Amino acid sequence: MQNIQLQLDSSEIQNSISNVVTRLTEQFTPELHQSFVTDLAFIMIIGAVVTLAFFKIKQPLIIGYLFAGMLIGPLSPFWAWILPEGGSTSNALDSIGILSDTTALNLFAEIGVILLLFVIGIEFPYGKIKTIGRIAIGVGTVGLFSTLGVLFYAASALGLNFMDSLFIAAALSISSTAIIVKLLEETGKIKNQSSLLVLGILIVEDVIAVILISSLQSIALVGTVSVEAIIIVVLVAFGLIIGTFTVGTRIIPPLIDKVASAERREILLLSVLGVCFGYALLANLVGLSVAIGAFLAGVLIAESKSAEVAKLISSPIKDMFVAIFFISVGALMDVSHVGNYIFIAIALIAVATGMKFGGNMIGNLIFRQKRSKALRSAFTLAAPRGEFSIVIIKVGVDVGAVSAFLFPLVGIISIISAFISPFLMKTGDKIIPILDSKKNV
Fold first, then answer.
1. CATH architecture, domain defined by 108-440
2. How far apart are CA 98 and CA 42, in angstroms?
3. In Å, how far from its chain's centre is CA 52?
4. Phi, psi torsion values for 36, nearest 5 degrees
5. What pLDDT, in 10s, does the model give residues 365-418?
6. String of b and e for 106-130 (b: at least 16 CB within 10 Å)?
7. Nearest to residue 269, comparing CAs of 303, 317, 304?
8. What is the pLDDT of residue 145?
9. Residue extents of the structural domains in the chain
10. How far apart are the first and last CA of the chain?
11. Of the candidates 297, 322, 323, 321, which has an alpha carbon nearest to the alpha carbon of residue 311?
């Protein structure tokens, strides 16, 4: 009898909240609710409150961003509870204005990734990158393809068909550049030697990701791998990188210094952002990731005498768009269906994390890196999956090559792995000094 009373009370509360929401939404015009300004207001206000709470409990802000997105997103179970299906408020969600313009959000999120990689690139002039290039290529390649191979067999063992296994293995073999870079920045490790190796590996993985997307599309459509397409992508990537370090370093830095001599920050800001987005556009036009172009643009700015000023004036803009990126990622994750895929998701996360850690350790050992440096890079790269993982699966779904359930599955894996990442990095920080002390004894 008491349980029945509780259920009735819960139903009455839910109906009351639904009626309040309905009355509130009727007071606003549809045009306002459908505008991007409304979505941006929700993101900034709720994002600020939630991230402040996470800062107070000493958790990485990136987790706060993701949680805020999950809280205010249109796919959140919270809103599904307030606005039940089939009720009089079944269409209220569309008019509430909570992240309704997801297309615009995705565009602004991409701007966040570009600016994030650009500002990080400013930290790494050509001299630093030159010292790590060969090792990054070797370690990144070993780590990625060893993870891909094991994941393919693991997915097959879990009952996925050949194409589903191939696409999910490729998607989960690539670490999230945006998440890792943000974590390194938040923890103050971005200038560490191990972080330089990690950034090099991430750039290598981005190039391989572009090759994988092209190859998987070819396999899905015609059943064969286009060797010519792979060769073209590799040659274009090397051409852009070599051109940047030979021609670009002689042209862009002097121009930026000349602009800086005017001593007007707004002109300098527009100039460095022009280089940033211009290079991102160039990379996109030749078939590469915009992240690669943005990072290389940052490297060019790093060669100028005005690098620190450029970083200082562009960082606030970067912070705003990066926040939008991570909040929108959290908002677009349909966590209401976690129960349907949770076993497969946990199994794939365990295999992907373990193999990414082990593959990077093997690569570091092959290239004779110090144990502490190898462990730090392996712990950093092990868990997070994100932007390229989602893109690869979306490509498979769009061409009809893979099952539709893979998209929410990779979304769930991305969100869980993003939560795991900072704790893995903290674990590494605790374990590595202990191992070093034992070595010295």
1. Up-down Bundle (1.20)
2. 7
3. 21
4. -70, -30
5. 888 888 888 888 888 888 888 767 877 887 787 778 888 788 778 878 887 888
6. eebbbbbbbbbbbbbbbbbbbebbe
7. 317
8. 93
9. 2-100, 108-440
10. 68
11. 297
